[in-house]
Amino acid sequence: MSADMPADNALPAANTAAVRILHEGYVREANDGEHVGGTVTLIVDGDTVVIVDPGMVSSRDALLSALAGHGVPADAVTDVVFSHHHPDHTVNAALFPGARIHDHWAIYDGDLWISRDAEGAGLSPSVRLMATPGHTEQDISTIAGTPEGVYVCTHAWWGADGPAEDPFSPDQARLSASRRRLLDIATVIIPGHGPSFRPDDTTPR
Ligand SMILES: [Zn+2]
Ligand SMILES: [Zn+2]
Ligand 2 centroid to 86 CA: how many Å? Predict the structure, then answer.
């Protein structure tokens, strides 16, 4: 197997997931300071209902209304994924009281701490996790197989333009390696702080 072949071991076994963006992330300056919103994504695959990164958002009520708009009450969410540990992607986890929480090294279920490596961990037949360190050492990406292709929720990019050099990255080479792995499989990328995009030759590696 050559280095440029698709990373098949990262792909979900099925393509039955539905992916909906509940809140599109951003970073912007305003007169009262810097506003940071994290992208919040809903993935439904059979009985598995996943929230990837519960935010920071400007309004928790608006986030729950967006979820209800897809017919999902907050207590029906079965799983929350933290793409990494920064607060702009984690602070609202308690909005989903029935959910297990997944990060790079464990699953948290009530007061149960279940250690495991996120790489290749499955949440459902069409949803898997991939270890993608680079923005931080704790980054993971959520890979969803859908009838329209493979969707990737990740903070390896803040938005479609990168930034090419992530100012937070402790190791830009590791970030580049993670980005290449994701680009091997992604049809659509849902980044941490911007609109979803279809990667092309201009996508920072
Ligand atoms: Zn971050
Ligand atoms: Zn962020």
Answer: 7
Q: Which ligand is nearest to the CA of 136?
A: 1
Beta strands 140-146 and 149-153 are antiparallel
For residue 73, report the distance from its CA to the centre of ligand 1, in Å: 27
In this structure, which ligand is nearest to the CA of 88?
Answer: 2
Distance 102 CA to ligand 1 centre (A): 16
- pLDDT per residue as tens digits for the range 140-196: 999 999 999 999 999 999 999 999 999 999 999 999 999 999 999 999 999 999 999
CA distance 11 to 127: 9
- For 63, phi then psi, to 5°, come to -65, -45
Distance 135 CA to ligand 1 centre (A): 7
Q: Ligand 1: distance of its center to the CA of 86 in Å? A: 5
Structure tokens at 198: 């279809």
| pTM for this prediction | 0.95
Residues in the chain where the model's pLDDT stays below 50: 1-2, 6
The tally of CA atoms less than 13 A away on the side-chain side of residue 119 is 10
Question: What is the 8-class DSSP label of residue 170?
Answer: S
* Cα dist from 7 to 72, 118, 123, 180, whole Å: 33, 16, 19, 10
